[in-house]
Fold this sequence. Notes:
Order of helices and strands of chain A: EHEEHEEHEHEHEHEHEEHEE
Shape of chain A: globular
Oligomer: homotetramer
Helix content of chain A: 25-40%
Amino acid sequence: xxxxxxxxxxxxxxxxxxxxxxxxxxxxxxxxxxxxxxxxxxxxxxxxxxxxxxxxxxxxxxxxxxxxxxxxxxxxxxxxxxxxxxxxxxxxxxxxxxxxxxxxxxxxxxxxxxxxxxxxxxxxxxxxxxxxxxxxxxxxxxxxxxxxxxxxxxxxxxxxxxxxxxxxxxxxxxxxxxxxxxxxxxxxxxxxxxxxxxxxxxxxxxxxxxxxxxxxxxxxxxxxxxxxxxxxxxxxxxxxxxxxxxxxxxxxxxxxxxxxxxxxxxxxxxxxxxxxxxxxxxxxxxx
Amino acid sequence: xxxxxxxxxxxxxxxxxxxxxxxxxxxxxxxxxxxxxxxxxxxxxxxxxxxxxxxxxxxxxxxxxxxxxxxxxxxxxxxxxxxxxxxxxxxxxxxxxxxxxxxxxxxxxxxxxxxxxxxxxxxxxxxxxxxxxxxxxxxxxxxxxxxxxxxxxxxxxxxxxxxxxxxxxxxxxxxxxxxxxxxxxxxxxxxxxxxxxxxxxxxxxxxxxxxxxxxxxxxxxxxxxxxxxxxxxxxxxxxxxxxxxxxxxxxxxxxxxxxxxxxxxxxxxxxxxxxxxxxxxxxxxxx
Amino acid sequence: xxxxxxxxxxxxxxxxxxxxxxxxxxxxxxxxxxxxxxxxxxxxxxxxxxxxxxxxxxxxxxxxxxxxxxxxxxxxxxxxxxxxxxxxxxxxxxxxxxxxxxxxxxxxxxxxxxxxxxxxxxxxxxxxxxxxxxxxxxxxxxxxxxxxxxxxxxxxxxxxxxxxxxxxxxxxxxxxxxxxxxxxxxxxxxxxxxxxxxxxxxxxxxxxxxxxxxxxxxxxxxxxxxxxxxxxxxxxxxxxxxxxxxxxxxxxxxxxxxxxxxxxxxxxxxxxxxxxxxxxxxxxxxx
Amino acid sequence: xxxxxxxxxxxxxxxxxxxxxxxxxxxxxxxxxxxxxxxxxxxxxxxxxxxxxxxxxxxxxxxxxxxxxxxxxxxxxxxxxxxxxxxxxxxxxxxxxxxxxxxxxxxxxxxxxxxxxxxxxxxxxxxxxxxxxxxxxxxxxxxxxxxxxxxxxxxxxxxxxxxxxxxxxxxxxxxxxxxxxxxxxxxxxxxxxxxxxxxxxxxxxxxxxxxxxxxxxxxxxxxxxxxxxxxxxxxxxxxxxxxxxxxxxxxxxxxxxxxxxxxxxxxxxxxxxxxxxxxxxxxxxxx
Lengths: 287, 287, 287, 287
């Protein structure tokens, strides 16, 4: 990454009041910060304010550590929840897969082509099938079987691997296991899933079969954060495609793959670019 | 309608087997029938076959009555459910509205501009608000109040009006009353509703509020046939539009109007052009 | 409009540098301005910065006149081009139509239902056809014939009517006359047109015929500002719909109407809500 | 492929008249042919009729050779151009690439996962970059440099390779060379290209730069057959995605990749499933 494109991303949520933008932009200006991108959202129902700034790193007269120290003086009085990240430090996504490979193919393509900036330190699977393809990309592949009669050790091992590989987030790329509640709670807003329906329709198992039986005219996919409540976590991104009466379940599965990988890729990008701020059960996504 | 564009539309459903198309197209060819449009669907799960033909009326050496008489000889052996309609006879849609006028505006525009062929013999409402606009178009408007404490007489009156005006179908253009089960059963596959959500998500009341609370990224609308099970009837058409975190409930309502009227218009067109064939709970829509 | 929802909209364009946001938001905060919505765009190619703020009117300790006077002190040093508008003052759109009424129906519906805030002081047409429908809405209708052999007096009369009715913008709602160059230049960024193609494809006459001949799989519509170069003005909004080989030119015309009115409505809304800032030949649209 | 899913696909184009469907479906019924899918199109402007049938192979009492021999007796009198293909024989697509790999990744994924049925006997490139990825899939990779000063021998070599590998079609998956006219003419309706714009907008070089400069609000991609007229061949499939003022040329390139690969994949599928029939410069696509 060349200096000219390195950026710091500052995200903020706080109670809404007059003067927030003035305080933040005043601070940035004082230290020479060139704003490349800025987004605001004022949530009228809850009187909460959300901001995201991308600042040209080389313009700022402060190191990140100095920024953090000094900005605390602004953040405190306004009651801000905030974070700042550095585009030179790629987020590390631990990817979990089972046997289906369409989302994995897509993520590996985007990683290899640097479609957007992220790293994959390890791919974990409950099956061996995709080892060769992952390893061809030079990425470690770990097989963690999840035996039906005793799944807990497997999930403990997965969480260990996540920490060993210094994961910043976990991506369930059509991973066909339900994570235990304690694991979801251990990584809040850090586990992204792709569900193969337009939630809240067709939560749970076999959504394409459900969609076929109901006779819907569009099918969709949903990228969401995983919480202890299955398919109930905050939605990051969704999309749909048109089907018709001539399409059987197997066609829905086939066409669905294209929308699943597209929605997951967008959701992952929004997450790694710090575009997603949570507001209770809802998400603010600054595109 | 000039002779050159008058067409007969033949729709057929029957158990699937070899020879159906040959028998039907052989019959049409024998009587000079020029096929303008033909659609087939073979439902693998149920072994049911569906067909729709548009035949140039002036090419056929038979009157409609003769057609009906002779075609029965084909239909019987194949166990066909079938119908034939004449584009010179416009379908008569009895429209029910409450106070919201976006779907009504849209339907009246399409009727007046002959966007597709249909008539509106009467508009019925539980409020007086839209009388002047309807009457300006030269269409009778009947106010049938639906008092909360005793709704049955109102619905009996509406069904009477439907028959008095020789209705072919009833369109609920954001009519804010739930029809009684006996009325739904009296007009099977003849009552079209527009529901302001992407069913089966957010059935029932206040779907935009439900959608807002769930934090979905797309909202939709569904045109479906009304059955005694609220919001459970066969779906004819659906569509969605993208929203974002900046949109409050009132924005969803506002943007939703555009998708509601578009989806209702398409659903109504498919119905009046005999493009919708039912297959249990699902619809075959030959576009 | 109640006090709680009245808002001032401030739009700014200026050379990009550090400190713009700080200066503007500092000024707003100093005078109590509650920011409801804020959008920024930094154009990297040209080093130009664009901003739009919606400020709660009742929060501001300044009248609009005082705001204008004092804000000049900020705007000058930064070289800002800027404007501030008051949502309590509806923009007055002079609508021009010919015989086709789909865009007119749609605009009148949105005006009557207050889908978004604007007024229509007069509708002008080169034909009498739509007089009754316009007048039913209580809006004056003026017939200005445009004789092929001498069009100039007609356009001079139209511009007079625009000024007599204190127009803020002119909307060509499928007006089938090409405006003279002097008229386009008299109202820069004030005349909105809907072109029935996805520009730059199929500029000029009969775009649906052109689209049919080329065999495209999607057709579209474009809302743009009118300049002296036909169909070359800055684009505000575009959209498309899918067609197929079964659709003849007349079907394209029919389906196209739906996309034309939707695109025009969005373009008009962006304009009246001061969401469109021009950047040479391109538009910044803060949605 | 199991017997139960093997199918023959019969495509026909001929002058329109009464009796075509009767003759074809009569012939099929006579030989026991079970119709799985049937599509018709009657082109009113040219009085040409198009048909496509998928017939269950095991239901037919004729071998393909017998079918061809006997069907000639029907085809002759009606002046049919026709073909029949066997789903058990996969079409062989010779893929040409340069350095960009997004379309290649997508095609290899679809080939490997049998998303739809086709083979890739060889990938040819004017660069070495993608050799390892192609060979990992077990597919031969041939480097054919195309020196600027003398390109003809390269294209002759490519055509030789196409024939050596018994190609059924050639797919230009972002191949950055213009094919010579004689090569386009040698393989009419056999070379598919993906152009990175919504044609006819932005034909030729650097379409994303052109789109950026014009300020369009949607960008697209077009899959078309290659003819001697650059970017003028019959269109098979198109699609678009929304962009906004914040997107620079590099963003258009990035988002464009997703739409390019999706459009190319659909176009290739339509081609290999014999869903595309040409009608002069336009295509009939039976989806």
